[in-house]
Amino acid sequence: MNEQYDILGTMVRDYASIYWKETKEKTQQRKSKQVFYFSMEFLLGRLLVNNMQNLGIYHIARDGLQDLGINIHELEEKETDAGLGNGGLGRLAACLMDSLASCGYPGFGVSIRYEYGFFRQKIVNGRQVEVPDQWLSLGNVWEIRKPKHAVEVRFYGEIDRRQDEHGRIHFQLKNCEHVRCVPYDIPIIGYKNKITNTLRLWSAEPSSENLPRDKDFHSYLNETRELCHGLYPDDSTEKGKLLRLKQQYFFVSATLQSVLRNHARRNPDFENLPELYVFHLNDTHPILAIPELMRLLMDEYLYEWNDAWEITRRCFAYTNHTVMTEALERWPINFVQTLLPRIYLIIEEINRRFEKQVFEMTGNYDLARSMSIIKDQMIHMAPMAIVGSYSVNGVAQLHSDILKADIFNNYYTLFPEKFFNVTNGITHRRWLVFFNRHLTKLLTSLIGNTFISDASDLSKLVAHADDPSVQAAFLQVKQIRKDILAKYILAHNGIAVDVNSLFDVQVKRLHSYKRQLLNVFHIIYQYFKIKNEQNSDIKRTYIFAAKAAPSYRFAKNVIELINAVAAKVNNDAIVSKFMKVVFIENYDVSKAEIIMPAADISEQISTAGKEASGTGNMKMMLNGAITLGTLDGANVEIHELVKDENMILFGLRSEDVTRLYQEHRYNAYEIYRNDANIRRIIDSLKDGTFGPESAFDEIYNEIIYKNDEFFVLQDFNDYVKAQQTAAIWYQNQLQWAKKCLLNIAFAGKFSSDRTIRDYVENIWQLKEIVEYED
Ligand code: 26V
């Protein structure tokens, strides 16, 4: 079976390679501007179905295989899920790559070929256990190794300064460590338009250059091997930080070297670099590309600072993905000095000139210092990204507004023309058309299939939302999808869930700001209520899936609590008649493809102002779920479209949250003391209801002793009300279906095709290579 999958995959890749070559040739011939999307993460998931569908060969292949007695779905399951990402940021990169090609724009995604993807999660005795994700163990049919395109990247060493006869100082690295970077290319196939772009993943190999004086052969080999070992979790601890910095420089340097080398072959100089390339920085992780381009232009191609800077700052665009200060990157000066001595000098000079510029603009020295890239012995990556880019964007309107008003306010005041919003999106082909064929069939029977290439056509569904027969048909589709998920749950969790119950879904990374805890507290509340009343308004199935960063103790404790509550609820003879709780192990793209279509309620309950955008919210909306959420991230834009009748809002608004933080008046303990329901829930963490007395101390302490940083208790009662509204709505099934249909109808905005067009129009300025299917 694995062999059959390999053969099919290789055939598909070879078929695509014709278009791949053509796209490259056309881009070169026409001198089309291209985007290079630099990202430490690409959460691709599986590619077989997506690629065959985009090539328009899925059905032929399926039928052909069937004639041979081979079930294509069984082959699909053989593919490993490429999990080179932590969560939203990585999946966004993958969706954008799909839409870039599908909208006919040329470009590359660039990243690292990690040997191990994000860890696989096992739940053992209710706890998360991490095991390595050996995604390459059976090979990867999609990649092609390109040794001819290898380049060398250098680390460590000492700087040698030499003045030439014109007085110009030349910088050279001496006694440094060389690493050979070999690219592996994966085709990114556009939807039925023959356009095929490249995802280039760099891999480290030993170089044949001399070793540094103080390095022995074995440690060099080990270090080289280690470089592309694994992907870092989003709150990685001190250990290994240097390795992450090495990874960051490794792939940006390799990419820029190969771009410049290519450019030099076809152009007399680099003046036109910004007309031919835009280097997009997916968060600050690839930000060393800015000083690296300066280095290459000055040290290798002999540009003067001012000319090099003019080219550099016109090439870069930066997207911010979080306002959480602990997630904003900073590097100790001495790390960068040691690992990348020349790059450090350039950063210093960028900073010196920037501080001077701010002082000249404002006359305010303190302001210039406070906006500095280098402060407190640290290099602050977001300021460097803002200084070195012509564009800075947030990923949803609210988030972009917060960047301007709050965390980047000083920069916005001085450089307002740099700031943009580009609301995130998802590829609606993967997330609806290919993986919810039941719903797609219904939709095409009602509104035709133009929405597949133009998601705004989903709005044609508005005209059908009032039709009871369409509503009934939608409910039937949802039932089928819930059945599929229920079977999965039975097979993997051994829990029988009722497909007539409301499927209430929260699937995303586990972070305290996302407030899975609020959801669990409500479940505990329901548990006590049902135990007491021996009855319930509606039946519910609460579905969770989430990975916690390995060192994030609070997050892991929440997973334990979910599983402990699940065990209690599901084994209670009375309560389990009305509710079930399920934690689906090892959330990844393939799991999401089963879960999203089956959701009735989409839980998007982050503390307002904290979730930059969210993209799971878009996936569930597109599959006909109703969002129950706070006015946060892209929820705000969902609400603008579907209005109060089709979404359930609750909780603090982001301005309330800001005020509460500023006024220091929030007192979680007071709420606990005065609210009997809340007290009962919190006490249950300690009184043995769900486990030994200290089992949930991480959680208990966070709420009671650390004053509940994310306002779980503050929003609790409003959340309970929102859940009651959901129950009332759910009881009228046809009306419910109407709301779901309207959600689908308005989801067109959240196609990543629209996101790509926003980037192209406002930031990248690319032109289409038009080439549609005959
Ligand atoms: C957040 C946090 C929060 C506190 C602890 C450490 C930590 C580390 C990383 C992060 C988030 C990193 C960036 C990220 O993944 N952002 C996500 O990007 C998505 C795509 O734009 C967006 O939809 C999500 O809202 C945003 O969280």
Q: What level of helicity do the residues show?
A: 40-55%
Please report the total strand number as a whole number.
25
Query: What is the CA–CA distance across the termini?
Result: 34 Å
Question: Into how many domains do the coordinates divide?
Answer: 2
Helical region count?
31
CATH superfamily of the largest domain: Glycogen Phosphorylase B
Q: Identify the overall geometry.
A: globular
Q: Could you describe the largest sheet, including whether it forms a barrel?
A: 10 strands, mixed
Quickly name the level 1 CATH class of the largest domain: Alpha Beta
Attached small molecules = ligand 26V
Average pLDDT figure: 97
Strand percentage = 15-25%
- Uncertain ranges: none
The CATH topology name of the largest domain reads Rossmann fold
Q: What class do helices, strands and sheet pairing give?
A: alpha/beta
CATH architecture of the largest domain: 3-Layer(aba) Sandwich
**Alpha carbon gyration radius:** 27 Å
Overview of this structure, please?
The protein is an alpha/beta fold. It has 2 domains: 2-29 and 36-424 and 757-772, Rossmann fold (3-Layer(aba) Sandwich); 435-750, Glycogen Phosphorylase B (Rossmann fold, 3-Layer(aba) Sandwich), CATH 3.40.50. The chain is 48% helix and 16% strand. It contains 31 helices and 25 strands. The strands form 6 sheets. Strands 1, 4, 7, 8, 11, 12, 13, 14, 18 and 19 form a 10-stranded mixed β-sheet that branches. Strand 11 and strand 12 form a beta hairpin. The radius of gyration is 27 Å and the shape is globular. The two termini are 34 Å apart. The relative contact order is 0.11. The structure holds ligand 26V. Residues 87-89, 92, 234-235, 283, 321-322, 324, 326-327, 395, 424, 511, 611-615, 633 line the site of ligand 26V.
